[in-house]
Amino acid sequence: MLSSRFRLVRTASSLTTRALCLGSAALQGKAPDMIEGNSYLLVTNVRNRLRELVGASTNWSDHQQAMAERVSLSSQLARSQDELPVRRMKDSYIEAHLPLGSQPHLREKYLTYHNSVRFGRILEDLDSLAVLICYSHTKREAQGRSPLSIVTALVDKIDMRKHIIYPDCDIKFTGHVTWVGKTSIEAKMHMSQFHDGAYSPVLDATFVMVARDPENKRAAFVHPLKPEGPEEEKLFQEGEANKMRRVELSTASLLKVAPTAEERKIVHSLFLNTLDSQTVSFRSRLLPPGSVWMEDAKLKGLEICHPQERNIFNRIFGGFLMRKAYELGWANALAYGGCRPSLVAVDDILFQKPVEIGSLLLLSSQVCYTQDRYIQVRVHTEVLDPLTRQHNTTNVFHFTFSSPEEVPAVMPKSYGESMLYLDGKRHFDLTMSSQ
What we know:
Blueprint lengths: L1 H16 L7 H4 L2 H5 L5 E2 L3 H9 L5 H10 L24 E5 L8 H4 L8 H19 L11 E12 L10 E10 L3 E12 L2 E15 L16 H23 L9 H13 L17 E3 L4 E7 L13 H20 L4 E10 L8 E12 L2 E11 L6 E12 L6 E3 L3 H19 L2
Parallel strand pairs: 1-2, 7-13
Antiparallel strand pairs: 2-4, 3-6, 3-9, 4-5, 5-6, 8-10, 9-12, 10-11, 11-12
Helix pairs in contact: 4-7, 7-10
């Protein structure tokens, strides 16, 4: 019975592949051409493929030796981008399958106690796939190990198109490079699931990766990208616009410049709403009805970073960090709203510093903005050096959740919390404007 069902699902999958809209109107016309020549790839084999490209090993001691040997590959790096041949978008196209329906033994790893799919595991798969897509863009004609170390710089955006992910239906990931700078690469991916006889889109994701030298110490050039046709040109221009938007957001960061006039009015209004009308004192603050102080909307966690969670470059796997941050953020939203939340979007995940094996990773989740049924959660991660007691920020994550019921309003008390509130509002407004 199992083998018959597997053949049926695979057949239905292959018959519908060319007719699907995989989450992007611009990609719809290009997907059939890109599919040609790509073998059937399982998500479970993506990291094995990456190890082959880099020369990494699953054995801890062998892995350390392999990383040391990569130093000799530095001579293969291009001295300028002009030395590298131009690539097309379809050169990096990859389709990967997660057969949760046809291979039930895979489900336990992905199953939640609500009998749905663990989204944190999906984040891990997306991160690995984005790296493989970028290696496909930079592959050389001659076989052998790649001299590049391609690592995740940031997750620009993940938009959920469907909140239900079935634990017993096959999943398909597709994606390719859509924009290239001199040393950075943007990869767009789409996830769909086979249900009721057809694949339907689940999410769209945009990752930005950077290329480094074999020792992961300095930037390395990547192949330029040449769009073919108006649809690919549109995707490339969107990548260019994404880059400019990130620069503008960084310039306007509340850590660098003061809030806008409108934002200052919001902060002042929140402050006035918490004053005690009896004393009218700056020191006397009262929580308005149906509200929660921001300082009471936190959840924290600790991870000891073991070798099992390493990536192919001997650092902690970025997907693991995303999974842990997401699960803490989800738990915080659950505790805050009192109802099981659904993810709406992930945006602006910045990888500021790699996490070394053996690190003590501190995670702090904060509900920083609410509106009606929506909860904006910020998760900050840092490593603690137990000898020097120094804390260094590694990542900042932003998640937007929706709750089945209206949630209490989160209320900042200090100026610093007010800045977190405004930053959360900015991320929420940006998410809602793209829905």
